[in-house]
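Teaching note: in complex prediction, the entire set of molecules is handled at once rather than each chain in isolation. The prompt given to students was simply: 'Predict the structure of this complex.' The entities are:
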Amino acid sequence: MKKITGFIAALICLQATAQTNKNFVQENFTKIDTSILMRDGIKLYTVIYVPKDTTQPYPFLMERTPYSAGPYGALSYPNAVGPNETLMKEKYIFVYQDVRGRYMSEGQSLEVTPHLTNKKNNKEVDESSDTYDAIDWLLKNIINNNGRVGLYGISYPGFYATAGLPGAHPAIKAVSPQAPVTDEFVGDDVNHNGAFFLMDNFNFMNYFGADRKGPVKNYDGSVFNFSTKDVYSFFLKLGPVKNSQSPKYFNNKSYIWNEYLQHDTYDDYWKARNIRTHLKNITIPTLVVGGWFDAEDLFGALNTYSSIENKSSQNNNRLVMGPWTHGAWESKEWKQFVYQEFGSNTSQYFQDSIETPFFNFYLKDKGNLHLAEATIFETGSNQWKNYTAWPPQNVKQVNYFLTANHALSLQKSSLKNSFDEYISDPAKPVPYTNGIYGRRFDGYMAEDQRFVATRPDVLVFESEELQDDITLAGKILADLKVSISGTDADFIVKLIDVLPDNEPQNANAPKGLPMAGYQRLVRAEVMRGKFRNSLSKPEPFVPNKITTVKFHLNDVAHTFKKGHKIMLHIQSSWFPLVDRNPQKFMRIPEAYESDFKKASIRIYHDNINDSKIVLPVLQ
Amino acid sequence: MQKLTLLFFTCIGSLTVLGQNTDSAWFVNNYSKKEIYIPMRDGVKLFTSFYIPNDRSEKHPFLITRTPYSCAPYGADKYMQIWKSYKMKYAQEHYILVIQDVRGRYMSEGIFEDVRPFNKNKKGTETDEASDTYDAIDWMLKNIDYHNGNAGVMGTSYPGFYSTQAALSGHPALKAVSPQAPVTDWFIGDDFHHNGAFFMMDGFSFYSTFGKPRPHPTQNYGAGFSTPIKDNYKFYLQTGTLKNLANLIGDSIKFWHQMYEHPNYDAWWQARNARAGLYNVKPALLWVGGLFDAEDCWGAWNCYKATKKQSPNTNNKIVMGPWSHGQWSREGSHLGNVQFESNTSAYFQQRFEAPFFQYYLKGKGSLNDMAEANIFFSGENQWRQFDHWPAPGVETKKLFISANEKLSFFPLATVKPAFYEYTSDPAKPVPYTEDVHDDRTREYMTDDQRFAYRRTDVLSFEMDELKEDLTLAGPVIANLLTSISTSDADFVVKLIDVFPDTFRYKTPPPQGEAGRGLYPMGGYQMLVRGEIMRGKFRNSFENPEPFIPNKPTLVKFELPDVAHTFKKGHKLMIQIQSTWFPLADRNPQKFMNIYKANESDFKKATIKIYNGPNATYFTLPILKKQ
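The expected output is the structure of the full assembly:
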């Protein structure tokens, strides 16, 4: 979700400064700082930039945020406003609002505020009603508006954009949820398939979970003092997740952190926070945006789009997926990432050819909109592709079987009782990234995996050299037949593109790093084993009994080029991205160090127990 | 030794870019070059390049390097670019500079033999490298004008070996010899084997070029083998057995196949131990080596020690600095991520090497600033001087492994667990360095070991945070009480300095290190010394012995000397693992001649390291505070 957005926003501001007149906002907009009264009497702090030009009415473009609507004060102007520079120059009435309970707004915030379907009275409020009330006030009180409103936001603000859809104010004419926080138990930010994303949340909640007594321009510091140059070492020393509540750290001072540790299954708490449930009968034009390398809300983008498609038959819904990290589509330039070159400035393309036309068309009736249902950047081949559906219709699900001798094969093994085995030791978890970092390394989603392929606790399966290009489009199914010596374990499956041995060097790579044989991560996902049959009702494993563990990896649009190889890694830890599984069936937030045990993990690949990965091959 | 050395005289460069034109013009105008075939006692002629000062105001000494890497450039009008090297100062002092192709290499006649054995009882026209040096000096004295009757020899790496042999020539005009990173014993500790474990990556990359046959004198051996896979871990793992590697290098590389024929420390290897001749050595000696030299650190320490023991009346001195192979001729303020906080190379050149030759060859200056042992201590980053080495005031102390992966000077009477264990899988060997490389890195000798610490097949033991500085000066001895599930295994012991979490250097390292920006030094696990022992040689390098599976067995071996201070607030760590790839070849973990192993011989093994007062410990050479 999160801080990163602020960081990128700051970067954008800097870049805007470099290229545009830094007084552009002040010269062209009048700033209004005000508080808007909600139906329950709570006031939300709102900052409004009204174009000085009064020759024509303007639509509203609004972002609701938990990260501050600042700078505060009628005399403080930022360097830039709006989702991108072109839209700023197009001029809209830009609106920023502190959501309920955050920064300068009154009230009490809730983690991913649950949506209330049948509100009985004015005391029952949610983000939909707050958005509604704010828009109602804006239409009546800001002069020279054209009666239309657009909502947008990245990450947590992406959630607030989505949350404006159910029960939307009729003036809302276009919404763009971008990397929207969508389901924090199943696939975004906090958990993936019930596995807790320890590092990101520990860092984030230390900032975000800080307390406030009332409205503030700045939160009074973080929950605790924390700095490390080596997160792997820090979290290993921290020990069980339980220890995060020690007096040195959260100490029960962050209610959201408490909730995270309390709700370790897909219970009513999390289900109430799954906004997808409410994306019914959405007809407002929507533009869902996500990044293939988004470590936070890739799931949210893909699944917000698919939920609107599935639940709203009259939708006007589009998807854009680019080769981006969290929010990178906002940046001035995005041409390469972790030593892969995209061949064009993908963020500029998004801003000029997708985002700007979308809002101009629906909010200003300006121009024509020739935007495909799905505008998808295909990595590997490095091209934008337009589809009439996502995933595309002409996709065939192809089984790639794991076989003996570490091969990945179209043919199922004919062997009997064939398996690979490794010891997963929670005291020596597999690192999620190479190198030493003080925070999560953003590049891990496309990183060279050779650093772990050498480990005895990582299984590697590799296809033959490809004779033709193979393009994948859609989600990936991992279908593993496993047995474990404990009663629980995690399974991480990584799909990797192995570059050929004649791959040339890359100028952006560290000197001397051979790109030949580079194992580029394409997609990875974790499944906490006990949730294999139900995220709501965890089940222990019967030790040493062969068991199916089946789960999806998020969508990809990737071409494995001729001469490359397809590789899979399987491992049982991914640290400190994901907290360690004690490998014992239990409530992990209650585990003590002594609960953590080594486990022997077998992955079967024989004629009966045929572990495989199912790839969506574009025909 | 290796490729680097090839560059030694030609492009060490980049030190003095400023003034290069004037320096090159000065050298060409003030020196004359002659190329001469010097006849040896058996009639074989050795190609020799002389750079002779035009200066006639005084008589000059000879400074000689004998090399298997070529005395190029060839041609009387083509000058070596000495002005790119610190050795320019010897030109400014008007030394007669001599470079000779050794017998059988490049333009010299005769037959080359790698690390040719010293023959102490030569008869008639029998030759060795010592006699070739003798004959060359003798010829020079008679045929080159304006010499002062004194000769010195220096050389680094393989030329270091030829320097050692020169010292054994006994020529009365030879007054001073400085063997630097001298190749000394290729089975025990230098270059191609350490304690019998084959350093196949260095060997393969070196011999595929160096070992090519040369039927006639030549100026160029041509290109070597280019590995098809640029990730050396993958290349050597995929190649598999040593047999397969031999097939790749081909039949023509004689010495490669000789190494395969001598899997143990037999008479053939023993004859190639350069220490064997170090008796009654006449010239003054200045041994030079790098604490972090991946190739010949062992040779430098052990030639000094052998001379001390076997030739007690020799004027015997040593300088050891914090250097990679030959780094004392280059920039010397850091290696990889580890900083030394001063230009140690310039210090060496100006304070030790130049005064040594000036004093013995020109009778100038004094050696008052030089002790017998002049040693840089990493960690505290300062030079110390001693009357001998290992240093006076060293006390050995046993450091035991203990509960909770700790190290302690105080063994517990009863300890749990009784042992630590791991599975060593030759199919997934522990990498010697973190990142992917084509060539073996120089920097691995000081690399961060956190990547290894995180593996399930590496044991790590750590002392508590030090309350005061702990200085080690000498060899660390590993006494491993182990049992293995098979009949052979390797043991790699790594001595590591764990920096405090808050550690930062005062100044950032010089730019351009791997393009990664500043490396996080907090919690850095600096390799101070690593060494491998091939288990079957634990009792004898001549007569290997199998292990009895699962029987507790002592594996005792010495790590090359260290000179390092673990600062207050740091921790001392020791890691144990059974592979170090592709630096060392993989042990099939089955007692056999590994050069003949098939892929099917390679098996996983369970390795136990026992804990307790009578079990595993490390003997530390602790330098008492003065």
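Point out the following to students. The interface with chain A takes residues 228-231, 233-234, 423, 425, 428-431, 434-439, 448, 450-451, 454-457, 501, 512, 514-516, 519-523 of chain B (CB under 8 Å). The CA atoms of residues 478 and 618 of chain B lie 5 Å apart.
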